[in-house]
Design goal:
Strand content: 25-35%
Strand order of the largest sheet: 2-3-4-7-6-5
Radius of gyration: 26 Å
Shape: globular
Number of helices: 14
Largest sheet: 6 strands, antiparallel, barrel
Helix content: 10-25%
Distance between the termini: 21 Å
Structural class: alpha+beta
Number of strands: 27
């Protein structure tokens, strides 16, 4: 076990001398331990120094950050501040769309000191700035090695991840090798693709990418079916998305959805067990991601009020809360105490307006002519740290407040991509922070297969203080020291 931990952790586990020192400290604190684990304390004092289980091992793995240490990467991110002067047109568009090859390895949350076996996947990306490629975050999540290949070329080039936003399923890549960007006989010059706006309903779009089943570029066509807030499967976030009837298959992820030569979205997922229902990330979400990376050097997350609310469709509920026929909104049921919202809003308040936009009783707001969208889209598109003006109804009185918006930190993390799990081993007892990736180890149907009380904590609990975690005794590594405790887990 000690050897396995030493290989996998970013910071190696202490050597034998450090272990002995740790055991001495344990003996000094035996009285304190006795109050916590009475039956284990005598055994801890008598623990032999040559045991094969490390009696106290802590490891908190750092977040794997993108590579910033190259001049190419810094220049690529700096290019976000300047709009390109020339865009790809006609046949040049295909030259700016690349195939992405990824080798990745997911952490094993049941055995947090090791990873699952390495796997390979492919996706699509396209050039948006000088030496900057946009793709999906799930294409490069937990990556260990990324390469890209140009349209019409047979050569792969090493690529580095320089920005990633898992919540919005977007990532930025760059390639240091100048040969990749230069024109060649079998490939033209790579020019950035122009980013457009939100397409209209029934407008035709082309999805370009490298889906499975072949190695060459694939082009499918379809029309815009609807625009609404939907779940981004990669990080279980609910953001604005565009539904189209063009085929989006594995490998298409990260490819552009084009209206002529202009990008109107980024392909990222489809609807399983349905025919030709795909989704693309709209440009407002893309620009929000790019602006965050440009300002802070990394993506900080989308904003949230940190509230749980219900719609006001029931007329008796509206009457009980003193709402007039002209008023509409949603009622606040719960507020996360760590948010700025908790300082001014209360449970039972009716949120009437957000930034001057009236909220309907079904939770939607006006978007375009004869189109409505869920009001949370207004919140998620606000810049981090910005101020929002809200109007609420409280006990029959209309009140107005200014709120500072920031990304929401959840008590049980929904995803932990690009980082190794943290854990603590004490006397063979393995403690880990509760997270949804931990529950995902129970399989695709983890909600039914994992312990019910942990699922309830993961889905319904709110953070009560900053940096709060739920710690789980995941398993017991059997040894003499923990005899009688082997049955404890989760």
């Amino acid at each position: 076990l000690l050897q396995h931990c030493s290989r996998r952790l970013a910071a190696p586990i202490p050597a034998c001398t450090a272990v002995l020192q740790q055991q001495q400290r344990q003996q000094q604190h035996a009285r304190h331990i006795s109050s916590l684990l009475p039956s284990l304390a005598p055994q801890l004092q008598q623990k032999s120094v040559n045991r094969h289980i490390c009696s106290s091992t802590a490891a908190k793995a750092p977040v794997i950050k993108p590579k910033w240490d190259t001049e190419t990467a810094r220049k690529a991110l700096a290019s976000l501040a300047h709009e390109p002067t020339e865009f790809a047109r006609g046949v040049e568009v295909l030259d700016s769309i690349v195939k992405v090859y990824t080798v990745f390895s997911r952490p094993d949350y049941f055995l947090p000191w090791q990873n699952h076996p390495k796997r390979e996947s492919t996706g699509t990306g396209f050039v948006i700035r000088d030496r900057l490629i946009l793709t999906n975050a799930h294409v490069v999540a937990d990556q260990t090695y990324v390469t890209v290949k140009r349209h019409g070329s047979g050569t792969k080039y090493r690529a580095d991840v320089v920005g990633v936003g898992h919540d919005v399923d977007l990532a930025l890549l760059t390639v240091e090798d100048d040969a990749f960007w230069e024109s060649a006989e079998d490939a033209g010059t790579m020019k950035p693709l122009q980013l457009g706006d939100v397409p209209q309903l029934q407008e035709q779009v082309l999805v370009v990418g490298y889906p499975t089943g072949g190695d060459n570029t694939s082009i499918t066509s379809g029309v815009v079916s609807r625009l609404e807030v939907t779940q981004y499967v990669h990080a279980a976030s609910h953001l604005m998305a565009i539904q189209i009837d063009a085929a989006i298959n594995p490998g298409n992820s990260g490819g552009p959805a084009l209206r002529g030569d202009v990008v109107v979205g980024v392909a990222f997922q489809n609807l399983p067990h349905a025919d030709n229902i795909g989704y693309i990330i709209p440009l407002p979400v893309v620009r929000r991601f790019l602006s965050e990376v440009m300002l802070y050097g990394h993506y900080r997350g989308f904003c949230s009020l940190g509230i749980v609310f219900q719609t006001m469709d029931n007329p008796h509920l509206r009457r009980a809360l003193g709402m007039t026929p002209q008023q509409s909104g949603v009622m606040i049921n719960r507020i996360q105490p760590t948010t700025s919202t908790a300082q001014v809003l209360r449970k039972g308040d009716v949120l009437l307006e957000f930034d001057g936009v009236p909220i309907a009783n079904d939770g939607t707001v006006h978007f375009r002519a004869r189109e409505r969208i869920f009001f949370t889209s207004l919140i998620t598109l606000k810049p981090t740290g910005s101020t929002a003006h809200v109007k609420v109804l409280r006990e029959g009185a209309v009140l107005e407040y200014d709120l500072t918006l920031d990304p929401l930190q959840t008590l049980v993390p929904v995803h932990k991509y690009d980082q190794l799990p943290s854990y603590f081993i004490y006397a063979g007892l393995v403690f880990v922070p509760l997270s949804q990736p931990y529950l995902h180890e129970y399989g695709d149907d983890w909600m039914a297969n994992s312990p019910r009380r942990l699922v309830d904590k993961a889905l319904n609990s709110l953070m009560q203080k900053p940096e709060q975690q739920i710690i789980v005794l995941s398993q017991v590594l059997v040894d003499d020291i923990n005899t009688g405790y082997q049955q404890f887990q989760n």
